[in-house]
Amino acid sequence: MSGTTLEQFSYDNKIVKYFGVATIAWGLIGMLVGVLAATQLFLPEANLGNPYTTFGRIRPLHTNAVIFAFVGNAIFAGIYYSMPRLLKTPMWSKALSWFHFWGWQLIIVLAVITLPLGLTSSKEYAELEWPIDILIAVVWVAFGANMIGALIKRREKHMYVAIWFYMASFVTVAVLHIFNSLALPVSLFKSYSAYAGVQDALVQWWYGHNAVAFFLTTPFLGLMYYYLPKAANRPVYSYKLSIVHFWSLIFLYIWAGPHHLLYTALPEWAQVLGTVFSIMLLAPSWGGMVNGLLTLRGAWDKVRVDPVLKFMVVAVTAYGMSTFEGPLLSLKNVNAIAHYTDWIVAHVHIGGLGWNGFFTFAMLYWLWPKMWKTNLYSTKLATTHFWLGTIGIIFYALPMYVAALTQSLMWKEFTEAGRLAYPNFLETVIQIKPMYMLRAFGGLLYLSGAFLLVYNMIKTAQQGTFMAYEADEAPALKPHVPVEGEFWHRAWERKPVFFTVLATIAILIGGAIEIIPTILVKSNVPTISSVTPYTPLELQGRDLYISHGCVGCHSQMIRPFRSETERYGEYSKAGEFVYDRPFLWGSKRTGPDLHREGGKYPDSWHYHHMVDPTSMSPGSLMPPYPWLATNIMDHADVPAKIRTLQKLGVPYSEGYDQQANADLTLQANKIAANLKTAGVEVMPESEMVALIAYLQRLGTDIKKTTASNP
Amino acid sequence: MKKFKSSLLLLLGMFSALPTFAQASESSWFANLQSMDSTQLTLLVILGIVLSVIVLLLVLLIYLMTFMSAVFRKENPEIASQPSWWDEFKLKYITGKMRPVGGKEEKALMMDHSYDGIVELDNKMPPWLANVFFLTIGFAVIYFTYYTVLGLGQTQLEEYAEEHRIAAIQIEQYKALAVSSIDETSVVFDESPVAIAAGQSIYSANCVACHAQDGGGGVGSNLTDEYWKHGGSINDIFKVIKYGVPEKGMIPWQDQLSPEQMQQVSSFVKTLQGTTPANPKEAEGDRYVPAGPAETAKPDSVAVPVKVEAVAEAK
Fold it and tell me: Could you tell me which of A178, A203, A213, A160 has the C-alpha nearest to residue A507?
């Protein structure tokens, strides 16, 4: 009696190779851009004197390249290799696989083109404009369809824990991307966010935090559950722990977004939710680390010799460190010190360089010899890469912690006379310049290690023969026979659709409870009657501010701390941002907050400061923007912008779009004339005039009431 | 680097709580002790002795207990091999049972499935991790109840008000000092080299952007000529520095400089009178003639107006 007949099929390694090569190529580019950005922070000349390579545009290019191009391609390579093997079936459709691959690369290329051109929505990690957003959605759905198809055709009855994480990641990223990117287009390259001010901030950080969770964390946990036991050749430590930490992690993570907005104008109930859910995330996050490290029990002798395991151990440990730091930073008193400083930058790089980077390297070092049927070309080189990377991370992170604490304490220090000890913001920046140099050195070390990887990969491929298709066989899936006393979760694992629906419900709850009331309940954003919409010229200036990425260094959110109100002026209130589409609160103060910038300096000060920041602030690290004075701004799209904003509910009077450009010219001429009295000749149509109009408006609306009621 | 070091020191200070509060409590504790009379001191000493005797007795008690249990174990060897309460506690609440790698026990835990060769063990979640989870959930419930449900915790605006209340007290104390009372009526031209040097460094740090290093002006007015838009006496200069002239672009400095510092920089500005800057801005405002005979201006030193374009070019 022969039992079951085995079905023959094969796995597609070619797509894995392509995604792998893309990972390496984009990784190098992304890290190189990162080193450039790090250099710009202590050497303004490195901005290269043109709008396309200034820090404000280079930073989003770096974050997009490393998150979506480097880590993104690594996820796809890892999933396209592991998922078919875990399900004993090829991916659903080869055509879909290639559509996914080329579609994703196209998105990245479009990002590389549009971001330096200043075409941006300015929402962190979601900067790309609406046509690219639609493309992302389509390609992402293709990826999901390919996975779902494979699940339907699977020959393995139950889904392994890695698959749970893959599916949850797919669903959540789709939901996050679609809701955060909702915007009304003005033209092909310009749109205004569907949300304004406080609501936009909440939606953005619901997205931003969970981009970290469901793009950088859960897919990698899935990869860890496949590649770590494979590389260590050890059983996974605890199946029960997998269940507990999977469900608690995805359910709790989605709530934690508001911890990015502590002490801001966000309603406090939402802030408190952000804090408590971040605290509760500690154990579920560590669940992944603990299960990974305990799986290595009995394989620690291998860690000494195998670079793959070395990378994995540091990756998992870095994950544990940053997920300990996360809850810590969500405590109000810690956040009051750390927010807007380099602490956050250090924190994300422990996660990015340590967890994502190192795990990707481990995976590639493991995959290449497997797919080329050979051994790794040089273990020694890989070990050197490991040490270069590790030292690089240390050189990156430690100076950032020192810089953060130094600067934060300087910001907060008062003299006995009750005045700021360092009233000049610049003093606090110059103080930490050496730390910025060390950080760039750390980044350079890390990048140089990556070059060793490239060489090693090429050599490994050369000495082996690539196996495009790997044959395997397995019996067909049999209809389910009810089993007595089946564990409840075990039953879920054989029902992919039911499982995915449950995961979707788990991730929808937190977001819905936080976002819907903030949008619908009016009392969450108390209105201020003196706050009025931007004038057409200010709007143009604001769009210029967005396009140049000023928000990368300048926040517009003064927290209710004495040290901030003394330095910047009255703390920011929710009602002041109701016409801000998108919100521009920012997340890092490399320069001072600008929310009360209006009226602080004369127009001519801004002119000189933009042309050459060091002329007004000797020693300033801000890049010069001399082209603003000569570039003529095209105001032809202003009527369309006004109409779009009207549709979003901004109360410009009926038919104002026709009046807008006349008002704009009037205001521009006034500013140009004012500049002329100060000895500055500038065209009223120049970008400079629009930007000055916006800067002089910032935060002045509430002063109007105080002026009339002294 | 000096500031860097001091900020590091400050960092240490942060970990050892607020320095100002520590000082305040220390001094009051010491003062209380000094003001005590002898009977109170005697009582305190007796209390101290009683407390130390209690501690001593407790230590003795613990020692005797361990001694007794050691004797007990020696007499009953079957008990000695049993795990201690600590071992049991550890097993139950911290580490859990860790099976030897590759042993029979571990094999028994292996689940009956494998995915592409990956096997899972049916170990329990480590108890310490579960306990951390429960603790954080407890923290979350209490925190949320305290701040949101009951509303007992301070809101961020209440915290802000509290911060201001404390600062106001501290500023009051400072104001009692003499140097803090300098204002536009009491300010004097302090010619001492120390004051002028201090004034110069304040000027270099804050004023040169608009008034140029040599006082020739630029965005701001020329400070070397005899013409002043808002008066040229030390009192007028002090007043302009203190309150600013926001409509003309001069920002107020009273929040950033102390009265003493403003006197120093005003005095320094006075010393610029009659010097010849490299690119003087044209004269603005009215000619100021000092009242005192000591400060008589030379009649031929009237500044020559320079055209606006020339200034712009010179930049």
Answer: A213
